[in-house]
Amino acid sequence: MPAEIFTTVTIGERTFAIKKFDAKAGLKLARFVIAKLAPLIPMLNVGTDENGQEKEMSDEQLYDVVGMITENLSDDDIDSLVDKCLRVCYEILPAGRAAVIDETGHYGVEGVEYDPVLALRLCFEAIKWGASAFFDGKNLASRFAKKEAGSQQNQ
User: Fold this and answer.
1) What are the pLDDT digits (tens) for 62-114?
2) What are the residue ranges spanned by the domains of the chain?
3) For residues 134 and 140, is the Cβ–Cβ distance under 8 A?
4) Is 56 strand, coil or helix?
5) pLDDT at residue 44 tops 70
6) 3-state secondary structure (DSSP) of residue 44
């Protein structure tokens, strides 16, 4: 069964497709998150509603987390993280998907480069979706043990 590669999020009146990071980028992102942001991971879980659907983080909660994150990051860290995150984001338009940032580093959809709140929300969604395999309530050791056991069975 093929893995789910995209998820769709609606932010304001706009709809975006978020692509999972490839394996190498996902590992690098997980390393970065663990090294720099580990104490903040529990703050990213806002729980579920009465229907069992994940609640959306409020702007106020997001600003609190961002304030704490930016204390620990250099400008280069922020630039790298934003670029990596926005490269996996696509706005869904009538003509199809449009890359938020293209492979040359240029913005491909209108308004994102001048909307830090939208860019921040897209980064949050990209990290949440792209690194979900690492941060789904299980610790990393158990995640790797399960994968390793499966690999040994196939040999």
Assistant:
1) 677 777 777 778 889 888 889 999 999 999 999 999 999 988 889 999 999 99
2) 6-153
3) yes
4) coil
5) no
6) helix
Each as own residue / partner, the long-range contacts of residues 56-59 (CB below 8 Å, 24 or more positions apart, any chain) are 57/124, 59/117
Instruction: Specify whether the backbone of 2 is left (phi greater than 0), alpha (psi in -120 to 50) or beta.
Output: beta
pLDDT at residue 136 in the model: 55
Global model pTM greater than 0.90: no
Phi, psi of 45 (to 5 degrees): -90, 110
> Do the Cβ atoms of 20 and 3 come closer than 8 Å?
yes
Model confidence at 155: pLDDT above 50: no
- The type of residue at 9 is V
Q: Please give the biggest Cα pair distance in the chain.
A: 51
Q: Which residue, chain included where needed, has tokens 């987390």?
A: 65
Q: What are phi and psi of 64, to 5 degrees?
A: -60, -45
